[in-house]
Amino acid sequence: MFDVSKFPKAETEWFTESRFGLFIHWGLYSMPARHEWIRNKEKISTADYQKYFDRFDPDLYDPVLWAKKAKAAGMKYFVITTKHHEGFCLWDSKYTDYKAPKTPAGRDLLKPMVDAFRNEGIKVGFYYSLIDWHHKDFTVDKHHPMRENEAERAKNKERNMKVYAEYMRNQVTELLTQFGKIDILWFDFSYPGEDGKGHMDWESEELYALIRKLQPGIMIDNRLDLEGTGDFITPEQFQPKEGYKDKNGKPLVWEACQTFSGSWGYFRDEYSWRDKTELITTLIDCVSKDGNLLINVGPTSRGEFDARALERLDAYAKWMHHHSRSIHGCASAPAEFACPQGCKLTYNPVKRRLYLHILSWPYKHIYLEGEAYKKLKYAQFLHDGSEVEFKGLEPWQMHFSDNRAVVDSSVITIPQVRPDVLIPVVEFFLD
Ligand code: GLC
To answer: Both 312 and 169 in a single domain?
Structure first.
């Protein structure tokens, strides 16, 4: 088995404190604008896909604006697709001509992005696709656009995955030596087994060793198909029922990656865009289970976030303006605090504050059951810093309560009218 213990450990503390990042999927697929897997779905040959490469010209691209949007939304890191499955590279790689500088864009698109985000104090993650439907040595397999093309299948004999694995190491070396400190490397993805690919094809062991040599503390995801590796777990397009734990019950680092609408790349005619309250709930849900959220934007081929994405980023920004305290530096609440119905809890262990996110507005009182809640000293709303009173039922109301749990609980009284924020939060002080 691969011995991961002989390598330096990844730095993960900044990551679990950050809790919130921006995923960006940007490539040639933003032109057809009907999913980043379009080559696979429509079985498009390299030759037929060339029309996008020849016309890719993001004239409105302004990474400074992107970075400002991310910062305003409370995101502390971003992950950009330096190369997606289509094989197109955003930077000026010397190992391929299939790159932005050779399109009408005429320049390296990655460098200015990295600079812009860093200037906003946002950490940098690189997504790098293990899959490459453009590279001449990448064999046709079950996910390949040419999977049903017998002639292309036959050519696999002339293809050499060893050459491709070396190409990846060369490119990863560029990415880890020409852009300063990189905080995350996000590989995507392995599908070992029949007609698939895994660590033997990627030569993951060598790749891993190379990365740890170039940037020892970098975080590497869990998609290299290499047992023992994976500095974070990457649930995708679902929210886990609970957080991930190791054998001893210690929380493991994880990050859910989610989309606003379903696809990762810009998809013009997709209308399944998520509701803003749900998107904020998803962020809270991650933190309440000791996880992070990486939410995705697929910029247009002219280089902009479209109106639907902006609307949602702005909703995060507006909510985070008041509520980032319940997200950044927070984790799951100690088990002794039972979560009241219709709510989600997070906790800041350094500040010793508990955050109650009220997802559905109840009738006047919230019952906080259990002894632990008796330790709370003060409560206030985050959106306006106004006190929330620990006030139980009125004596006359008690006549009508024969429910012991209600009588014995700590109780807070909330205003009759729900505050005008997408999800109101009560901040409890333990000291
Ligand atoms: C998937 C898809 C892909 C996307 C990724 C993000 O594995 O292949 O298109 O980039 O998920 O997690």
So the answer is: yes
Nearest CA to ligand 1 atom 10: 264
Task: Tell me the sheet residues that pair with 358.
Answer: 343
Count of the separate structural domains present in the chain: 2
Say if residue 267 is in the same domain as residue 388. Answer: no
How close is the Cα of 194 to the center of ligand 1, in Å?
Answer: 20
Answer yes or no: do 411 and 314 share one domain. Answer: no
Q: Give 124's strand partners.
A: 78
Could you give the CA distance from residue 22 to residue 55 in angstroms, rounded to a whole number?
Answer: 27
Which of ligand 1's atoms lies nearest the C-alpha of 257? 12
pTM of the model: 0.97
Q: Which atom of ligand 1 is nearest to the CA of 131?
A: 8
Decide if 164 contacts 204 (C-beta within 8 A).
no
Mind listing the pLDDT tens digit of every residue in the chain (431 residues)? 789 999 999 999 999 999 999 999 999 999 999 999 999 999 999 999 999 999 999 999 999 999 999 999 999 999 999 999 999 999 999 999 999 999 999 999 999 999 999 999 999 999 999 999 999 999 999 999 999 999 999 999 999 999 999 999 999 999 999 999 999 999 999 999 999 999 999 999 999 999 999 999 999 999 999 999 999 999 999 999 999 999 999 999 999 999 999 999 999 999 999 999 999 999 999 999 999 999 999 999 999 999 999 999 999 999 999 999 999 999 999 999 999 999 999 999 999 999 999 999 999 999 999 999 999 999 999 999 999 999 888 888 888 877 766 667 789 999 999 999 999 999 999 99
What is the domain range of residue 354?
A: 343-429
CB of 257 within 6 A of ligand 1: the answer is yes
CB 143 near ligand 1, within 6 Å? no
Contact between 309 and 323 under an 8 Å Cβ cutoff? The reply is no
